[in-house]
Amino acid sequence: MNSDRTSLLKQFISEEPANPFNKYALAMEYYDSQPKNSLEILLSLLKDHPDYLPTYFKAAHLLWEEERWDEAETTFRKGAQLAAEQDDQKALLEFRSAYQNFQFDRD
């Protein structure tokens, strides 16, 4: 995690609180080193910006890692549905593949 980049992203968030990209970028800064912080940001993005598609994929994976199975499944499904609604075929394929891996892992 790069503390300079994190500080800059926090500044961007305070300057543009309605821009979901800045919050998503901050969550990605935390993703590997502080997954709980990342998940907290991603879950708030899902609530505040439900049409911001990239959030679903990463949130679902962190929920999966936390073994929050029902939430992960719901997030994968909602992400796939949103990808279909937005006609994002690449994202839809990625969601379907990840969801299959998720189901396999749970069995």
Element string (H = helix, E = strand): HHHHHH
- Give helix % range: over 70%
Mean of the pLDDT scores?
A: 94
Radius of gyration, taken over Cα atoms and rounded to an integer in Å: 14 Å
Overall morphology: globular
Poorly predicted segments:
none
Estimated share of beta-strand residues = under 5%
Number of helices: 6
Major beta sheet summary: none
Structural class by helix and strand composition:
mainly alpha
Count of strand segments: 0
Instruction: Give the N-terminus to C-terminus distance in angstroms.
Output: 34 Å
Question: How would you sum up this structure, described in words?
Answer:
The structure is a single chain. The chain is an all-alpha fold and 107 residues long. The chain has six helices and no strands. The chain has helices at residues 3-15, 20-30, 35-48, 54-65, 69-85, 89-106. Helix 2 runs antiparallel to helix 3. The longest helix is centred in the last third of the chain and has 18 residues, at 89-106.
